[in-house]
Design goal:
Elements (H helix, E strand, L loop, with lengths): L8 E2 L1 H8 L8 H5 L2 E2 H9 L3 H9 L4 H8 L3 H6 L8 H10 L2 H34 L1
Antiparallel strand pairs: 1-2
Length: about 130
């Protein structure tokens, strides 16, 4: 009995998401084909020049823009940023530091503090349960 393994493939949009790049900015052959798991691993391990350039200068997808600005994706939307931005545009936004960005960054700080507080509270509850055993 022989077993044949089929190569796991994904749509270009999924591969672009895993690579952290904006799909419409990728080469046409990437957008039109399918990407195997081996090809994705190869792109991650040894990125071609187009991928290095996209990661360096953009345009970047919203999750990357949000991370670079230190805000949530929803915060970007509230700030009116709905499209992909280049690294240059992101840096300009940081330099400008509009009121919405200041507010969203403060919100992110509060969210992170709350997450730490909840994690600590849960850790203490677990320790109490373990002590009662």
């Amino acid at each position: 009995m022989t077993s044949h393994q089929t190569a796991q493939t994904m749509k270009p949009a999924t591969a672009a998401k895993k690579l952290g790049v904006y799909l419409p900015a990728t080469p046409a052959e990437f957008q039109e084909g399918v990407v195997s798991r081996a090809e994705l691993n190869s792109l991650q391990a040894d990125p071609p020049e187009w991928l290095r350039e996209l990661r360096r200068t953009g345009p970047h997808p919203r999750p990357v823009v949000a991370a670079k600005l230190g805000v949530s994706i929803a915060g970007l939307a509230r700030g009116g940023v709905t499209e992909a931005l280049t690294t240059e545009q992101i840096e300009a936004l940081k330099d400008e530091n509009p009121l919405w960005l200041q507010h969203e960054r403060a919100t992110q700080v509060d969210v992170r503090k709350e997450a730490v507080r909840i994690k600590e509270k849960n850790r203490q509850k677990d320790a109490q349960k373990d002590a009662q055993k």
